[in-house]
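Reposting from the mailing list since nobody answered there.

I have sequence plus structure tokens for a pair of proteins and want to know whether others read the tokens the same way I do. The first protein:
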Amino acid sequence: VVSCLATLLRKQDLSAWSYPITLQVYHGLLSFTVHAKPKVRKEAQHGVCSILKGSDFLFGDTAPAHHPAAPSTAQFCVQEIEKSGGTKEATTTLHVLTLLRDLLPVLPLAVVKTCCETLLRVMTLSHVLVTACAMQAFHSLFSARPGLACLSARLNAQIITALHDYMPSENDLQPLLAWLAVMEKAHSNLARLQRDLCWGHLPRLFTAAV
């Protein structure tokens, strides 16, 4: 049923998304992305990703910059993370972070900023798995090399500055390798967007790496 619903929503034309009922049905599907049963959750997450990335109208000449349901999807993710707090209910946070990892590159700039702030906030909880998932989400965002409608040079630079505060101890090998991989992608993407701005950030990265 979840799979059929996702396929049906993916095939709707752009005008159908202006109807409240379409979003209502979509949010019904979205609620299953944090379901306790892994198979249901995985299918729902796959469905949501296929809708936001693969809806037919996203590939036409008059395609919008992002899917109309993208902002409310990001809002749902942020609310779920804040509700679970990333502590006792860390499993919910991990499920949402997994979804965000796949969706960040197709979200509009304003909500990407909000999502990144949320990612940085949960990383302060010092929950090893949550931090690792948040880093994967950042890595996915920079690796996708999204357009300016998703990630501006300014936001890219702000994330780099913020991530310096989360540099792991050199004794924590896996987190450190993950941090370096994210910083590499972040700087190379910033160079693509605005070379001079990246140039200004490199000395700090080199110092940290050395």
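The second protein, same order (residues first, tokens after):
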Amino acid sequence: QQGSELSGWAMGRWTYEGIDLNHNFADLNTALWDAEDNDLVPHEFPNHYIPIPEYYTFANATVAPETRAVIDWMQRYPFVLSANLHGGELVVTYPFDMTRTYWKAQELTPTADDGVFRWLATVYATSNLAMASEERRLCHYDDFIRFGNIINGANWHTVPGSMNDFSY
């Protein structure tokens, strides 16, 4: 009832060491987009698997143990489809979460699978009773009802290093 600003939504987002787990994954987007801009995809730079940058694997890299554990888990069990849930907001976001234009805070940044992601997001948003209710509270000050309670993550706000983009 209080909304995300008043209910302490960020309390569980930070580790004891001060790492924001929502922004702690390796940025694979920039490498992909640079390769696309230089016409290297798919022959010289396959886009179906982008290796984790070496700097990210160093022992002194600012990577939370929780993030390393999730990455190890994802590498052991390749997912075909996954979702992660956050408390506080009544909106479904889908990749990409990071804007392609580095200096933009918001920008529609669809993936090659945008249609599938929008369909999955819509199915979830229309099936979730709290989200589908006409008497639901606003998300921050945004009224996502006009978008069907779904939005491209980067078109809402950019999130470099998100688990969504990393896993995609």
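Reply #1 (J.P.):
I read it the same way you do. DSSP finds seven helices and two strands in the chain.
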